[in-house]
Structures are given as structure tokens and as C-alpha cells.
Recover the amino acids of this structure.
């Protein structure tokens, strides 16, 4: 059925006001009409009055795939086809064509889907370049035109909601798709279609529609993103409003931003980790390393308060207690709890939760290469996500390795401070340990005691049985003392027949109980072989002094005085040799 000139003119006027790109061709696929939106989309206009082929109008070169209008006579069903066009600037333009027969003409709606295609491609590249077969994501209705007898039927076939409004935003007309946006009840004005009771904030048309041409504004309706395109009407005053559901497009953009942010954050973590690893390989001062650790580690986990307790090579002693955002009193209290007899003797690795200064806290155990305890990292807050645990592991691992290496170096240095015969510590090491215990008492108020032990009748063993017997006597005493002492205790040989035992976290009363056990259980009826069927008794005189009774600087002198008193008591009942 043909169309008269009046119908065609009416259509072309309306088509010029629609933001949708419209092309009209004759049965030979020659262009007879193009609206402004189509020229703007393709980037060219038909030359002169000549009817040019649709192929030439869309692109001078070939289109992939070739355009093929497959419509039967009097067909009322819209056909659709996706094409890609190489533009003059060398970029690809992806277009979806919907074609419907209108009398002796074909009406073709062109839709630019380049952004959707590029977003999908970009998303696929960020997901390890998994190529997507479906590059065109369409959520629009497949039928563009269902009827063509009247202008109303043509507009009803647009997949997007289209409203015609006057200067007061009162709706003059709308297509069928606009009914999907319409809320329950009467909607007289455009903003009521979006479920609002008053004009939108920062409405582009608040000062009129005259200067508007495809101005965009985004609305959120029922958790969906609706993009509104606003243009001035060419049939009079007022405007044309086109609404598209762009939820998927915006979600894709947000996904890309999220992945980019995640990549940036991981790169930042890796850079800090690399800097920290390099730093610990060059720095030997433990306090400097820990301060550097806090500088990068706490911001990454968004932490504000933390404490690091690092074991010394000597059991029951701390090499370092360093905190951030935590009071000195809490550091002292937690250090005391960590060095407590319960923690050290029962080999517990975590502090009781009620001791921690925070409502929620995490405790991370630092281990050495031999799996022994290197220290404890206390953090305010609970870290449960994979990302948080990963960051903690990434930074505590090189810290634990650094601590292990430094402790090994200190252990090697310690070997130089041992007695050649007994392999016990020498006087120099003992004096340094006493200094450390004195500092610990001043800072943490933890008492310690000193036991002085002197082997009885060593000269007699040397004179009667030779120095080999004397050495055997010294070795027996040293082995028994070392076997009886705790891991945290220091047993040192300070002279030929004199030993000193340093007892950390021990009062004078407990130290006296210790030497009472030595006399009654360890050295009671103890002998060494000095010849065939001949034995020599192993006896030791002990003296003790504790920091809870005497000043720390006087402990060795007081214990020595008590030892000589014990020796005098021994020789009152035993024969004195020379």
C-alpha cells in the first residue's frame, strides 16, 4: 500500500524530532530520507538530491556483514541485523539495524551499540582476555515497529520509552514503551513517570527546552538506572524525552572501575612488600626494621593499634617489645604476661584474650625456620577476609625470616661467651644477662635471683687423684646444674670451682627452694669414680640472693657471702682439706 505525500511529510517532520537515528529507503535500498540523528551517528550526509545506495551512505567501503534487507511483500514484522562500520577516522562503529516495511518504503532504525560492545570487550580483557562471542548485549524489545498505518503506531514500536511534554512538563503524548515506566495511579507530568512528586533536582530543562539537544540525565527507578535523553521538540514548544534502561552498561563500568582499583591496590601492596624485603636485607638494627614495618603494614590493614613481642635467644627474655597506638602501661603488662612462668614453662603461644587491651583482637604467631616461636604480633581488630589474611602473611613472613637470621647471628656471638671445659656461659655473658634482668625489673617489675655455687674439696681431688679427676668433678657439677635449671635460667662457670646461676622471674624464697632441691635430690649421695672401687663425693655449697630482698647490683655479692657461710657450715661437719 502506498503512502501519500502528506503522510511522508508528516513522518519526516516527526522523525527529525526523535533522538533515534531513522533512515528511509525505497525498494532498491536507495536512501530517500535521513534524519539528523542518523547523519550524526554515521558522520556524513547524503550528497545532493540523488538517491544513493544505503551501503554508500553508511560507509564508502564494504560493511561487515553486507546489508541484506529480507522483507516479503506486505510484511509487518521488523527485521534486525548487526553491522560494523569503519569510520573515516579509522575507528569501528557498531550499529544495530531494525527494518520494517512502510508501504513502498523501508524504515530503518539505527542504534549505536559501540559503547556496549567496547565495554564488553574491555571487561573480557580484564578477565584474562576471554573473548566473548556475543559482543552485542541487548536488553531492548526486538520489535521496533509493529504497525505502520499511523504515526502513533510507528512511535509505539520504539523500544525505549518516549514522552512528548510541554514547557510545564505536562505529558502531551507517549508511546507504548512509556507505559512500562508509569507507576500506579495517574501520571500527568514527566517526573511522575519516574515515581517522583516534584521536578527532578538539577533538571536540564528547568529553564526551557529551546537549547537542549540530546542532553543526558540519569535516574534510579526501582534499583534500575534509567538514562533520560532530552531534546527540544521541532513540532512546537516543549520537548521530547527518551528513556533507556542503562543498568547493564553502568554495572559494566562499575565492574571495570572495581577491577582497576583492585589491581592498583595489589600493585601498591607488592611495591611496599618489595621495599620492606629490600630494607630488611640491608638493616641490622631491629628497632629500625620494626618501625619501618609499622610504617607500611598498619595502613594496609587499616590498623591503628598493635604490639610486637620478639623473643631473645635466651628463653624467658624479650629482645624487643615495640608498639603503636598502645600505652606504655599496656606494653609492660602484656610483656609481663608473655614472660610469665605460665607462658614460658607450659610453652603457651597465645595470650589470654582477657589480657588484651582491645574488645576485638588478633594474635599472629611469628615462627623461626625450625618452627620454634620467634615472637607474637598483637593487632587490634579481627581479620577474617582472604585479602586481610594475605596481607598479614605477606609482611609477617619476611619479618619472621629477618628475626630468625638476626637471632642466629646473636647465637653465633653467644658461643664465643662459653667456658671451654664445661660449655657453660662465662663471666662476661653472665654479667650482661644480669644487666638485662636488672633493666627488665626496672621496666616490668619482674624479680630475679642469683645463686652462687662452689664445689667442695676440688683441690683434694686434684692432689690425690690428678687433674683428670678434678675436671670430671667440675663436669659432673656443671651437667647436674644445667640439667636441673630451666630453659630461661643462665648457668655460668665464673672460676675454677665456682658457678653462678641466674634465675629470671624468681623471688629469693623460690630460689632457696631451688637450692634446697639441689642439696636434697641432685647432690645427695652423689659420687664420681676416681679409681677401682674408689669414689669421691660430689658436694656443693650454695648461696642465694633475690631482687625482692636486695638491690639488684648487690645480688652477686650477697649470694657470694651466703655461699661462704654455707661452706663454713659444711666444714664444721666435714674435714677441711688444707
Amino acid at each position: 500500500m502506498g503512502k501519500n505525500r502528506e503522510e511522508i511529510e508528516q513522518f519526516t517532520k516527526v522523525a527529525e524530532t526523535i533522538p533515534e537515528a531513522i533512515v528511509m529507503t525505497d525498494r532498491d535500498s536507495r536512501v530517500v530520507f535521513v534524519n539528523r540523528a542518523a547523519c550524526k551517528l554515521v558522520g556524513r550526509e547524503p550528497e545532493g538530491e540523488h538517491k544513493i545506495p544505503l551501503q554508500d551512505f553508511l560507509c564508502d567501503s564494504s560493511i561487515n556483514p553486507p546489508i541484506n534487507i529480507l522483507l516479503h511483500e506486505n510484511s509487518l514484522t521488523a527485521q534486525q541485523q548487526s553491522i560494523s562500520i569503519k569510520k573515516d577516522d579509522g575507528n569501528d562503529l557498531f550499529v544495530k539495524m531494525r527494518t520494517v516495511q512502510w508501504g513502498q518504503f523501508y524504515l530503518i532504525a539505527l542504534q549505536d551499540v559501540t559503547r556496549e560492545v567496547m565495554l564488553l570487550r574491555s571487561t573480557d580483557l580484564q578477565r584474562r582476555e576471554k573473548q566473548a562471542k556475543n559482543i552485542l548485549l541487548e536488553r531492548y524489545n526486538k520489535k521496533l515497529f509493529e504497525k505502520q498505518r499511523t504515526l502513533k503506531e510507528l512511535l509505539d514500536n520504539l523500544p525505549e520509552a518516549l514522552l512528548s511534554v510541554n514547557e510545564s512538563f505536562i505529558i502531551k503524548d507517549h508511546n507504548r514503551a512509556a507505559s512500562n515506566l508509569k507507576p500506579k495511579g495517574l501520571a500527568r507530568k514527566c517526573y511522575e513517570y519516574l515515581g517522583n512528586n516534584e521536578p527532578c533536582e538539577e533538571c536540564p530543562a528547568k529553564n526551557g527546552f529551546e537549547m537542549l539537544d540530546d542532553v543526558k540525565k540519569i535516574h534510579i527507578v526501582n534499583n534500575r538506572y534509567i538514562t533520560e535523553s532530552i531534546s527540544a521538540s521541532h513540532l512546537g514548544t516543549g520537548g521530547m524525552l527518551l528513556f533507556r534502561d542503562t543498568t547493564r552498561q553502568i554495572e559494566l563500568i562499575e565492574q571495570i572501575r572495581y577491577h582497576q582499583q583492585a589491581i592498583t591496590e595489589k600493585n601498591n601492596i607488592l611495591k611496599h612488600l618489595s621495599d620492606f624485603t629490600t630494607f630488611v636485607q640491608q638493616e641490622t638494627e631491629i628497632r629500625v626494621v620494626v618501625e619501618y614495618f609499622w610504617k607500611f603494614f598498619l595502613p594496609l590493614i587499616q590498623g591503628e593499634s598493635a604490639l610486637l613481642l620478639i623473643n631473645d635467644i635466651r628463653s624467658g627474655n624479650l629482645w624487643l617489645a615495640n608498639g603503636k597506638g598502645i600505652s606504655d602501661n599496656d606494653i609492660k603488662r602484656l610483656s609481663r604476661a608473655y614472660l610469665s612462668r605460665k607462658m614460658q614453662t607450659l610453652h603457651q603461644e597465645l595470650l589470654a584474650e582477657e589480657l588484651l587491651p582491645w574488645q576485638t583482637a588478633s594474635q599472629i604467631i611469628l615462627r623461626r625456620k625450625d618452627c620454634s616461636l620467634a615472637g607474637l604480633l598483637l593487632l587490634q581488630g579481627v581479620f577474617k577476609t582472604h585479602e586481610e589474611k594475605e596481607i598479614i602473611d605477606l609482611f609477617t613472613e619476611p619479618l619472621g625470616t629477618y628475626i630468625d637470621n638476626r637471632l642466629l647471628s646473636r647465637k653465633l656471638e653467644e658461643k664465643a661467651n662459653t667456658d671451654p671445659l664445661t660449655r657453660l656461659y662465662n663471666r662476661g655473658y653472665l654479667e650482661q644477662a644480669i644487666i638485662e634482668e636488672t633493666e627488665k625489673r626496672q621496666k616490668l617489675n619482674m624479680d630475679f635471683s642469683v645463686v652462687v655455687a662452689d664445689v667442695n674439696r676440688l683441690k683434694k681431688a686434684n692432689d690425690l687423684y690428678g687433674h683428670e679427676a678434678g675436671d670430671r668433678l667440675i663436669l659432673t657439677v656443671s651437667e647436674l646444674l644445667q640439667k636441673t635449671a630451666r630453659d630461661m635460667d643462665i648457668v655460668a662457670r665464673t672460676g675454677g670451682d665456682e658457678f653462678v646461676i641466674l634465675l629470671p622471674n624468681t623471688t629469693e624464697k623460690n630460689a632457696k627452694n631451688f637450692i634446697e632441691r639441689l642439696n636434697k635430690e641432685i647432690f645427695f649421695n652423689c659420687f664420681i669414680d676416681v679409681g677401682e672401687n674408689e669414689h669421691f663425693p660430689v658436694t656443693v655449697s650454695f648461696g642465694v640472693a633475690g631482687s625482692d630482698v636486695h638491690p639488684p647490683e648487690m645480688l652477686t655479692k650477697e649470694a657470694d657471702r651466703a655461699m661462704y657461710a654455707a661452706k663454713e657450715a659444711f666444714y664444721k661437719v666435714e674435714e677441711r682439706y688444707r
